[in-house]
Design a protein that fits this description.
This protein is of the alpha+beta class. The protein is 20% helix and 30% strand. It has three domains: 85 residues, Immunoglobulin-like (Sandwich); 283 residues; 76 residues. A five-stranded mixed β-sheet has the order 2-9-8-4-5, with no helix packed on it. The protein has a five-stranded mixed β-sheet with strand order 11-10-12-16-15, with helices on both faces. A hairpin with a 4-residue loop joins strand 24 and strand 25. The chain is globular and about 80 Å long. It binds zinc ion (2 copies).
Amino acid sequence: MCDIKHSIELSNVSDNDKFSYPIIPLKGSICNRCSSDLKVQIDNCEWPVSKDLRFTNDKRGRFKLLLRLKKWDNLVTLSYCNYELKLSLFYAGSENSYSVIPLYIICEGHDGRYQSDTDENDIKSACNKITLGIELVQSLYAEKLAEKGFGRKTFTIGSLCLPFHSKLSLEESKKMTDQELWNYFAREILLSELYQAEKQKFVGFISSTYYEGVSNNDFSYANIKRRTTGNATLGGGGLALFGTGCLYTWPEKLVDIVPAFLNGKQVNRKLMMDDSNYRHTYGGCYATTIGSVCHEMGHIFDLGHTKDGIMGSELDHINRVFTLITTTEDLPERIVGRNTDVRRSMNSKLTQIKRPGEFLLKYQQQKESDITYFTNNCAITLQLHKWFNCDTCTSDNNCDTRLSFNFVTRIVTSVNSFLKLVELREREDGMLKVYWSFLDGNIDCFQITRDILLDGLTLFVIDNFGNILKQDL
Ligand SMILES: [Zn+2]
Ligand SMILES: [Zn+2]
């Protein structure tokens, strides 16, 4: 029997915490090492988890683990050798009728098999991966809003990922740009029976994304993109649309999430798509593509761009949220911007990546340790957004509210509600220029000062009920 005195501490979750979503990250530390492993039980049954546990010396270990709560009460026991930590966690599900529905979009004439390095790439496998990926993003949003002090608010997932059989032929789809694909699928989904009463937003993955490979050794992102069809990365309005070029790097099961992020296997770039922001590994592809999902879903929740954070250039480090990867990966800086042929009102984007070496990521160490966060203005919008609040609490009888902007007086006004955030964004790329927040006060009018030139800007306003005004100035 071991006579070392161990202990376990958790840093992000407390006893009796309540959750509206199932996948929970637990972060913490273990004191004093022996040969044991960290075990997790729920209601005294061995429970599958995905974990990263590392000791820096005999005295100090850290861990991050992911577990899936079952509905209602969960008595969670973390044990390390002779030490046990018990906590009771409650998962109630969500009562929000506004939801996000993940879809696996299959064009006419396509068999639904995504490009993969194995033959386990059928529709079922894709849907499992996508469902799990969206659940992970859901958990990440909650965690990141909680870190900002807004509680664990997140969006509701309306169903498991559904196959969506499009009328668009595979051949047609190959000729279309990202924006054309977005326009087509957005319209088709809106006209389908899935869409009801403006309470759904969709996250679609195109099954037929095809990377034809690179033979001239030009593995720049631009060239990889040129040699790929049906690989959109575009979000806005009610649809975030993605390709499945890197779905082969995504795990199907919760226990495989951490290993997938840690997977250092090199991508055979001659055959398989590499979207890892120049890390060239399976784990890098998973981190970057899940990061893109976080970013594009931000756009469907009406977020614009920010210089940094998830809505800026820092979406490649999602791996650090769920693992103990700490080495600073010197990744090239991203430029987020709107492609010129993208419809302006949709506030959508293409993420382009500069070649490596042009910029090094700076100031990383000063930022939060996992360098994945929403900036304050984005967090404020999300925590007020209808998709992030149970509608019984925001009350549905707020239909008389009205937000408006007077160009002459430059005054933003709310009727029967209070202004919480006013943003000015560049119209061209949705980049934040300036914002004002009024979280504590009850303000129903706000004047934008005369020294700000409004030309070429977009006004974004959200009130305490989550009503939004977006207007080009
Ligand atoms: Zn021990
Ligand atoms: Zn964007």
